[in-house]
Amino acid sequence: MMKFNRIRNIFMKNKLIFWAALSGFFSIAFGAFAAHGLSKILEPQALNWIDTGLKYQFFHTLALLCLGCFQLLYMPQANVPACRYRLLNLIGFSWFAGILFFSGSLYALALGGAHFLVWLTPVGGIAFLVGWAGLIWLSLRH
């Protein structure tokens, strides 16, 4: 029981893995709902928006999971500066914000949300790019 609690505490402290799990669950559930429930209701353009949102969400969910696993496995063993740890968190936060803004705005538009949400899509795209740029910078600094 002690070992299980220790493992659970490690994973709960790693918010990147939690966000990846949450996002992965939602992308599978919403993808299934869109494929089986919304395909007969929505226009093809709306289904394309959902498809694009799901692709970007799932790719970045996998990236978040990899980042979280890297943080979980590598960071406790190495003498890593706090700034590198913060940068990994910033990268993960940027990707998660990108999922919320980019994919979320596409889902909302597809489901008939307010048209002003179209302005959130590029904000999410920029958040994705900030995360990837942070990863590039981190890899060059290492």
TrEMBL record:
Q: Which key words tag this protein in UniProt?
A: Membrane, Transmembrane, Transmembrane helix
Q: Which PANTHER family match?
A: TRANSMEMBRANE PROTEIN 256
Q: Where are the transmembrane segments?
A: 58-75, 87-110, 116-140
UniProt source species: Mannheimia succiniciproducens (strain KCTC 0769BP / MBEL55E)
**InterPro entries according to UniProt:** DUF423
Report the sequence similarity comment from the record.
Belongs to the UPF0382 family.
Q: What is its main location?
A: membrane
Subcellular localization(s) per the UniProt record: Membrane
One GO cellular-component annotation of the UniProt record comes to: plasma membrane
Q: What is this protein called?
A: DUF423 domain-containing protein
Q: How does it sit in the membrane?
A: Multi-pass membrane protein
User: What superkingdom does the record give?
Assistant: Bacteria
